[in-house]
Design brief:
The protein is mainly beta. It contains one helix and 13 strands; from the N terminus they run H-E-E-E-E-E-E-E-E-E-E-E-E-E. The protein starts with a helix and ends with a strand.
């Protein structure tokens, strides 16, 4: 519970109470937020549409989440749920087997400099499945890469 509280403070969520009586992966926080950690070997399913700029991720679909590097930019990629990549292995997204399976590429919010974190680890046109922390605040949902907490995307969620 202490680790969860530290995560919530780091993401800017300050709950009044913490309750863990649900599934261990979905944790109700106070009355407003739900926090879930999705492992790199799990799929992420949307219950509502997610909007980030001009990108609309449809409701009631499941995806694998990955980091994808294109030149000096890194994106959160929504892949088909049937994609199988061994943990920690990098795949090249320009291969015909992988490219059509990338459904959405979403740029990360407010990333100034990734040189120290991601760029040395991920080659150009590389993709790697990542664990993420999902914080659902109702009208807003944030996905943060667990291994790189400066990488996050905030989606608007139509109610």
């Amino acid at each position: 519970m202490v680790a969860l509280a530290g995560v919530l403070v780091a993401t800017g969520v300050f709950p009044a109470t913490i309750s863990a009586h649900h599934d261990h992966r979905w944790r109700p926080v106070g009355h407003r937020a739900v926090v879930r950690v999705v492992g790199r070997d799990e799929v992420f399913c949307t219950s509502r549409s997610l909007l980030a700029g001009s990108i609309a991720v449809p409701a009631h679909r499941c995806f694998r989440l990955a980091l994808v590097r294109r030149q000096q930019r890194v994106f959160l990629a929504f892949l088909e749920p049937t994609v199988v990549v061994s943990a920690g292995h990098v795949v090249i997204v320009t291969r015909p087997v992988v490219r059509p399976r990338i459904l959405f590429l979403v740029p990360f919010d407010e990333v100034d400099d990734l040189g120290d974190d991601v760029l040395p680890v991920l080659p150009v046109h590389g993709a790697v499945l990542v664990p993420v922390r999902v914080v659902d605040l109702g009208p807003r949902l944030t996905i943060t890469v667990v291994d790189f907490p400066r990488l996050f995307v905030t989606f608007s969620v139509p109610l």
